Amino acid sequence: MVGVGLKDVLKAKEHLSAKFLGQEVHVLEVSRDVEGVVAVGVTTYSSGEVGLPPEYSDELVVFVGVVKEDVKVLKRLPASVGGVKVVAIPVGRPVVLSVLDKSESLLTRVSKVRPVLGGVSVGAVGVTAGTLGCVVYDASTGEPLILTNTHVGFPDWGECKIGLELEKKYGKLPVLQPGLYDIFMFGPVEDRIGVMCYENEKCGAVCETLQDYVLNKYLIGYACRHVRVYSPNESGQPGAGKGRNLVDAALVRPVSPDIVKPDILGIGVPGPAVPADAHVIGRPVIKSGRTTGVTCGVVSAIHVDVKVWESDTNYAIFVDQILIKSDTAPFARGGDSGSVVLLKERWPDGTYKTLGLLFAGSASKVDGKWIAMANTATNVEKLLNIRFGPPAKALKVPTETSIKSALRGVAVTVAGALATVWVTKTMK
Question: CA dist 242 to 126, 155, 181, 233, 337, Å?
Fold first, then answer.
């Protein structure tokens, strides 16, 4: 690959990100309905083709993501910044993928599954439903935990009064599999009535009994920690900058280690994380989600700063994200939030390399492509203090007998060595 280096490209990207996604954003986008700039990132470029693997591309460039190609907006974009080429790419209006579409659901994934595994429906009480990403492991203790998005596993992005009330009632926030939306849409009649009781703010004794019934039947764990998502006028996540975010990620502590398994439905056990650096641009990726199942896409850009809407009026700015494109079918749809994104490359043990955590995307095709966004797996690991990969092998705890046996072996070895030295000196 020729052209400028990554350091210069990132410097140019930061300049444009500050201009289009910072305080000056309203110069180009006075409201969400204006076809303005919603993303800035790094991709590859060769003879007009964008997002190729590095070995097939001429240079790294900065891309500016626009809702759609609009002449007024394109005229305001510079051709280059500091010698770095700038290209415009339509990406639509990214939204969190927890708005559900019943017609796209796969029955197996929206049903009760035990033990639970990645790729199935999940949601905190008070949240509709999203996707259980996979089992991850606490970096300090090795404890198995369940990974999903903050907006799926914790009432943080929008209002979630019922969830907060239950958190007070039980001392912690219950997480169900499948999520409440899917229990209501696909579950037995009595379960649907129980879900309706969760929506009734004036619950009596009967409603509370039905709530407890649903809780006991579908509970898989409790939300244990998450990374808060900040709005543009707040402080921001650690390492992200003022009003900015790196991840939309949360953890659930299972009620029992036996209730989870490390597999992802349709894929297998995910492997350790890899950094989202230049070599992954143009590489194929795979994911397993609640709505669309197992799908494939291609990494189009990295180091992406992007505006993501949680509702018509509420959005957050995320930095250092991964942009994924697909052609014939959507890589992700509403309800796939929380899916783990894997490179279609394997580690020596046969597991796929973990690249990111899906959380947002376009609601429809943009310029003939489907768009999805993912946090980098390395940022998720850092901010949640977890690790991806197969479960570590159990360490064999030494017994008193084994310790004595080992010491005897050492003693015999030392004695033998001393005897050899003594014989050698005597023979001289």
Answer: 29, 22, 34, 8, 25
pLDDT of residue 97 exceeding 60, the answer is yes
pTM of the model: 0.86
Reference 41, options 317, 368, 380; nearest CA is: 317
Distance (Å, rounded) from C-alpha 19 to C-alpha 27?
Answer: 9
Contact present, 390 and 262 (Cβ < 8 Å) = yes
Query: Measuring CA to CA, how many Å separate 177 from each of 45, 115, 132, 181, 347?
Result: 43, 10, 9, 10, 30
**Owner of token pair 């444009």:** 16
What confidence tens digit (pLDDT) does each residue in 172-220 have?
888 999 998 898 888 887 677 766 665 555 555 556 666 778 888 999 9
For the record, the structure tokens of 384 come out as 């949640």
Dist. CA 138–CA 164, nearest whole Å: 25
**Residue 21: CB partners within 8 Å, gap ≥ 6?**
37, 39, 40, 305, 306, 307, 317
Maximum Cα–Cα distance across the chain: 99
Residue position matching structure tokens 């499948």: 178
CA 331 – CA 284 distance, rounded (Å): 11
The distance from CA 169 to its chain's CA centroid, rounded to whole angstroms, is 29
Residue the block writes with tokens 């994380």: 273
For 417, the enclosing helix (H) or strand (E) is: helix 400-427
∠ CA 89-94-100, nearest 5°, is 140
For the chain, the C-alpha Rg in angstroms (whole number) is: 25
Q: Reduced to 3 states, what is the DSSP secondary structure of residue 195?
A: helix
Task: Assign residue 266 a region (left: φ > 0; alpha: ψ between -120 and 50; beta: otherwise).
Answer: left
Q: Give CA–CA dist 110/328, Å, rounded.
A: 24
Nearest residue to 218 via CA among 266, 242, 186: 186
* Distance (Å, whole) CA 116 – CA 109: 10
| Length of the chain as a residue count | 428
Q: So what's the pLDDT on residue 25?
A: 38
| Residues 66 and 73: beta-carbon distance below 8 Å | yes
Q: To the nearest whole number, what is the mean pLDDT of the chain? A: 83
How many Cα atoms occupy the beta-carbon half-sphere of 266 within 13 Å? 19
Give per-residue pLDDT as tens, 37-72: 999 999 999 877 888 888 788 899 999 999 887 767
